[in-house]
Specification:
The protein is of the alpha/beta class and about 450 residues long. Helices cover about 25% and strands about 25% of the residues. It binds adenosine-5'-triphosphate and magnesium ion (MG).
Length: about 450
């Protein structure tokens, strides 16, 4: 019986690991008892290790630890520094995930070059590409810094050895799925290996205060491949996203122990690499069709920065039995909810219409302020009435059809004014809170209900 073999430590252990949460079981289970995921247990082999005795833990007063190390490493790439919460914290581990070919290696190489340009040694370890391929990319990006060191390596222990010898200011590992630890018997890329290699690199980072950046692959459903625990282990998780058909790329913070998680960085992919976009509003509005029904501009706030985006809707009678509801860049549930509000509160007939909603430029908006943008775009398309092109709208919509206040209105107002919008439809409660010392020339219209919105925008 296989159970008897457990007591023989030299033999390989066969066990099953949950690909979602890392839960381990000696037998296969259809459903992970820990995270509840179905069909997530994968078979793995491990040679048991004889563990050396653990050193006794030491405790010191918090004030005894030196403070001097808390200086962030500034990359000088503003979009990146902002996303990181103001630079890279020493000893932190940053995981960068993203779809294949989105530009992760390019981003990391540019980041390393930025640090290297400050006369600092940096180490780039690649387990995916050859040194020549990296050199080719560096040439294309115009990177010439001699202090970027390159190693093609897959073994976590060797990476640690080479790092100790070189003592770089920053270590980048591309990608964590290609790494393995000698101490674990399973194959590279397996969940145990990914987790163990990360643990090894994490110990290195924390031990000597070295910042480590690891690139992670993303699965089809958008999660970083490997156990979910990977995201818990690291300090910061960044996702590099964007439509590959488009030139913009967005770096989004998913988790950050040392900064806000609302920040985004906007880049443009060019032949000579990623360039920062310091005026994303202009970029996202560049191809906006003017005087067309179904389109409205929303001043959104991502972290500490306002971005103007175009909300587009197409509402047309359905030719099928069930009307279609599609949302790109917005939450489909939110669209369904707002559709119901419009039907109930202003009697809009939408049940027999297909609805397509899109946030132009491939950006995703999650904040509630988008609600008013969605409602206005839907009504504009339904009524075939265009919204005046110099109007912006933003506000949360409640189930009773009330328009509720949203935050950072001054910031939204300033950005709208800067880009030449002169009419701002906002929640009435927000207008009272506005700082009127701001001498912007924007006409402010406060709305309380969905009916008010219809009155102001669609009734002659
Ligand atoms: N000559 C070029 N001109 C413009 N863009 C280019 C050029 N060469 C590569 N690119 C861009 O770089 C992207 C690939 O970048 P990169 O290899 O950094 O991606 P990655 O996320 O690391 O991919 P992988 O997941 O395969 O490692 C391409 O999708 C393309 O957009
Ligand atoms: Mg790559």
């Amino acid at each position: 019986m296989p159970e008897e073999k457990v007591s023989t430590p030299k033999k390989d252990l066969l066990f099953f690991v949950c690909s979602q949460c890392g839960y381990q079981s000696r037998k296969w289970l259809g459903k992970c008892p820990d995270c509840g995921e179905w069909d997530s247990l994968i078979e793995e082999k491990r040679t048991p290790q004889v563990r050396s005795p653990q050193p006794v833990a030491q405790a010191l007063s918090l004030t005894d630890y030196s403070q001097a190390d808390n200086i962030r490493l500034i990359t000088g790439i503003t979009e990146l520094d902002r996303v990181l919460g103001g630079g890279i914290v020493p000893g932190s581990m940053i995981l960068v995930g993203g779809d294949p070919g989105i530009g992760k290696s390019t981003l990391i190489l540019q980041l390393l070059a930025a640090i290297a340009s400050k006369e600092k040694k940096v180490l780039y370890v690649t387990g995916e590409e050859s040194a020549q391929q990296i050199r080719m990319r560096a040439d294309r990006l115009g990177i010439k810094e001699g202090s970027i060191y390159l190693a093609t390596e897959n073994c976590a222990e060797s990476i640690i050895a080479v790092t100790s010898e070189l003592s770089p200011a920053l270590l980048a590992v591309d990608s964590i799925q290609t790494m393995y630890s000698e101490e674990v018997g399973s194959a590279p890329g397996s969940i145990t290996q990914v987790r163990e290699s990360t643990a090894k690199l994490l110990a290195l980072a924390k031990g000597i205060g070295l910042p480590v950046i690891v690139i992670g692959h993303v699965t089809k459903d958008g999660a970083i491949a490997g156990p979910r625990v990977l995201e818990h282990m690291v300090d910061t998780v960044l996702y590099f996203e964007g439509d590959r058909g488009q030139v913009y790329r967005i770096l989004r913070t998913v988790k950050n122990r040392f900064g806000s998680t609302n920040e985004i960085g906007v880049f443009e992919m060019k032949e000579n690499g990623l360039s920062e976009v310091d005026n994303p509003s202009a970029l996202f509005l560049a191809e906006r069709p003017v005087n067309v029904p179904g389109s409205v501009v929303l001043p959104s706030v991502e972290g500490t920065r306002p971005i103007l985006v175009e909300v587009q809707a197409l509402v047309s009678p359905t030719s099928l039995g069930t009307a279609r509801r599609t949302a790109i860049g917005a939450d489909p549930q939110r669209l369904a909810l707002l559709t119901a509000v419009l039907e109930k509160k202003i009697g809009a007939t939408l049940y027999d219409h297909d609805i397509f909603l899109n946030i132009a430029g491939g950006i995703r908006i999650d904040e509630p302020a988008l609600d008013l943008g969605i409602i206005v775009a839907l009504l504009s398309s339904l009524y075939e009435k265009k919204v005046d092109q110099s109007t912006v709208v933003c506000g949360e919509v409640g189930l009773a059809g009330e328009i509720r206040a949203v935050g950072q209105m001054e910031m939204r107002l300033r950005e709208s004014d800067r880009l030449g919008f002169n009419r701002f439809l906002m929640p009435a409660s927000n207008t009272k809170l506005l700082d009127h010392s701001d001498n912007s020339s924007v006409q402010i219209i406060g709305v309380k209900t969905v009916q008010d919105v219809v009155e102001h925008l669609f009734q002659p």
